[in-house]
Specification:
The protein has 3 helices and no strands. It is mainly alpha-helical. Helix 1 packs antiparallel against helix 2, helix 1 packs parallel to helix 3 and helix 2 runs antiparallel to helix 3. The N and C termini lie far apart (42 Å).
Length: 88
């Protein structure tokens, strides 16, 4: 029910949010968050590679999600680096 453009934007946005989530927890020295980020990135690459021959649009969606995730993490680190890390 979504257009192709809306689906692409949704994947990008969800990826950005997930990347920011991982970055927030990595900033607090959570080793699990870094492991999850790596595993998630590997999984997205594997899904994109596997689907490329028969589902190139789905593969592009996985790569778009990954790009959003990495961008979200980078943006969060750049915006939050000026603030001291909180210890809750």
């Amino acid at each position: 029910w979504r257009t192709r453009r809306e689906r692409a934007l949704m994947r990008w946005t969800y990826g950005r949010g997930k990347g920011a989530f991982y970055a927030k927890h990595m900033r607090r020295s959570d080793p699990y968050a870094l492991a999850r980020l790596r595993a998630d990135a590997r999984a997205r690459i594997a899904l994109a590679r596997r689907g490329l021959p028969h589902a190139p649009r789905a593969s592009a969606g996985h790569l778009l999600y990954l790009a959003g995730m990495l961008t979200g993490a980078a943006q969060w680190f750049l915006c939050e680096r000026r603030r001291p890390a909180r210890t809750w």
